[in-house]
Amino acid sequence: MTKTTASIKAIKRDLTGRKVRQLRHQGLTPATVYGHNFTPISISFTTMELNKLYAHAGESTLVEIKMDDTTLPVLFKNPQYHPVSSDLIHIDCHKVNLKEKIIATVPLEFIGESLSVKNGNVLITVLDEIEVEALPTDLPEKVVVDISVLTDIDAQITVADLNIDKSKVEVKNEADQVVVKTDLPKVEEEVVPEVEATPADVAATAQKTPEELAAKDAEKSAEKAAYKDEK
Question: Is 138 in the same domain as 208?
Fold first, then answer.
C-alpha cells in the first residue's frame, strides 16, 4: 500500500510582529518555513485546516505545503497555542530534502491489555516517543506497542522489541532501554501521629535551664565546703 502525503494550502504573508494579530482575527495562523540552504519565508494557513492536519500529523509526519505553483515538503516544529482556545497561533515548518535522511521523534501508541496489570500490578510507561533517523518519506507516523506481552511482574518491552522496519529506519535510542513494564503497586505506609511529651514525662533536670543547673551545682559546692569547715 502506497503511503500518501498529507498536504495543506498556504499563502505568503507580509505582516510580521504584532501585526500578525490581524491575520488571527481573519482565521489565519502565521507560520515560517526554514531549512538548510533555504531562505526562510513567512506564510499563513487557514487555522481550522492547520489544527485538523496537525492533530493527525504531529511533528513526525511529512506534509506538503502547496503555495501558488510551489510544493514544499516539510515537518512541523515548535507549535505555539492560544492559552484559552488551544488553537495554533504559530508554527514552524522545517523544509526537508527528500533524498537526505533526517532525525525526528516518533510517538509510541500503546494497545492491548496486560495480564500483569489485570492481576493488580501497575503499568509504568518509561518512554512515550523515540528518536529515529530515516528519509522523510520513510518516517513512521507512530510506532504501535502491544502491551499484551506483559504477562507477569518481570516482563518488559525494550526499544529492541519495537516493531520497526530497521532496513529503512534507524532507532537512535539504546536497544536495551525500557519502553514499558509493570511493577508492584506501592503500599502506603501507615503514618503514626507524633505524641508531644508533657512536662510530667520529662526528667526534672531536662526542664531546667543551663543557668538554673549551674546555680544548683554552685549551691551544692558551697554546702560541701561549709560541711568541711565545720569538721
Answer: no
